[in-house]
TrEMBL record:
Protein name: DNA mismatch repair protein MutL
Protein family (similarity comment): Belongs to the DNA mismatch repair MutL/HexB family.
Function: This protein is involved in the repair of mismatches in DNA. It is required for dam-dependent methyl-directed DNA mismatch repair. May act as a 'molecular matchmaker', a protein that promotes the formation of a stable complex between two or more DNA-binding proteins in an ATP-dependent manner without itself being part of a final effector complex.
Membrane-spanning segments: none
Residue ranges constituting the DNA mismatch repair protein S5 domain according to the UniProt record: 203-327
Length: 331
């Protein structure tokens, strides 16, 4: 029933940034090499994600907005063995579409199918028509929460909503330097990565020259780390002189998922010691590898917070990895 769907939608879609996250994950799952994210008014008026991924046939587009349909899971076995694709619940498009005006335009890369445009409003398919469009998929989410005024009232200012969007797109752009990711807000391009560079190039595109120039590589394999669950720590951390008064620039990943973890943050901050002022944080893009069973992802699924079976050991491992990188630079 509609009401149930709208309530459920609130759990998945909290704000425009949640829609951005689901759409970008779908584009990555579709093996896109270009992902263009466009938002208006912080995403409250419009979120558009355009990709050059696999694309969908008309039947695929129709199926994509149906409840609990996903092309990414075969059965329970997949869940238990750990899914490799980012999305697996098969409900994002359906739920986003129940609280917005959703338009999907898509054309498959393979074959000579025409494109399809499907319009979905408040949980109903309004129209499905052939459309001329490039191979790949464009999803537009307009007027988020137009039919749930109570939830719309909870949205913050344009600046705050855009900050959430920016943080999400930044995380994905940094984790996927081989994908060209762009972000445009109210007609102004905020950043775009080339999709042809390494992590350093992605940092340059996203944060600019000053920050990119301050980055120090971190590279520690399991045997170089103190004992603990982490099998590797790698990425970039900034010289302590380049810092900000916000944790927002700590982009941390566990097994390539953008997550936060207290142990990781404390390890990073411990490595800098007193080199940062109080309430100052470095720029960090740091990837952590750990066996799946050492990571508890159910702490706060929506906020993407994880814990480890041995948080103390992880803190020591991250501290050691970052400290040795800083030491190599005489810090
Ligand atoms: P999930 O990602 O969990 O499967 P979604 O509701 O996000 O569920 O998407 C439903 C389905 O629509 C996906 O399984 C996929 O087959 C298709 N789909 C969604 N977005 C795209 C895209 N950008 N490119 C190709 N297929 C897509
Ligand atoms: Mg999805």
């Amino acid at each position: 029933d509609d009401t149930v769907a709208r309530i459920a939608a609130g759990e998945v879609v909290e704000r425009p940034a949640s829609a951005v996250k689901e759409l970008v994950e779908n584009s990555l799952d579709a093996d896109a090499s270009t992902i263009d994210v466009t938002v208006d008014a912080g995403g409250t008026e419009l979120v558009r994600v355009a990709d050059d991924g696999r694309g969908m046939s008309e039947a695929d587009v129709r199926a994509a907005v149906r409840e609990h349909t996903t092309s990414k899971i075969d059965g329970l076995d997949d869940i238990e063995s750990g899914v490799t694709t980012l999305g697996f619940r098969g409900e994002a498009l359906h739920t986003i579409g129940s609280v917005s005006r959703l338009t999907i335009r898509s054309r498959p890369q393979d074959g000579d199918d025409a494109g399809t445009e499907l319009v979905y409003e408040g949980g109903e398919v309004e129209s499905v028509e052939p459309a001329g469009c490039p191979a790949g998929t464009t999803v537009e989410v307009a007027d988020l929460f137009y039919n749930t005024p109570a939830r719309r009232k909870f949205l913050k200012t344009t600046a705050t909503e855009f900050a959430h969007v920016n943080r999400i797109v930044t995380r994905y752009a940094l984790a996927n330097p081989d994908v060209a990711v762009s972000l445009t807000h109210d007609g102004r391009e905020v950043f775009s990565t080339t999709g042809q560079g390494d992590l350093q190039a992605a940092v340059l595109a996203v944060y600019g020259r000053e920050v990119a120039a301050a980055m120090i590589p971190v590279e520690a394999d399991g045997d170089e780390l103190p004992p603990g669950p982490l099998e590797g720590v790698s990425g970039l951390v900034s010289h302590p002189e380049t810092n900000r008064a916000s944790r927002e620039y700590l982009a941390t990943y566990v097994n390539d998922r953008a997550v936060t973890a207290d142990a990781v943050r404390e390890g990073i901050m411990g490595a800098y010691g007193t080199q940062l002022g109080s309430d100052r944080y470095p720029f960090v893009v740091l990837f952590h590898d750990a066996p799946g069973e050492a990571v508890d992802v159910n702490v706060h699924p929506r906020k993407r917070e994880v814990r480890f079976d041995d948080d103390d050991a992880v803190r020591r491992q991250v501290d050691a990895a970052v400290e040795s990188a800083l030491l190599d630079h005489g810090l």
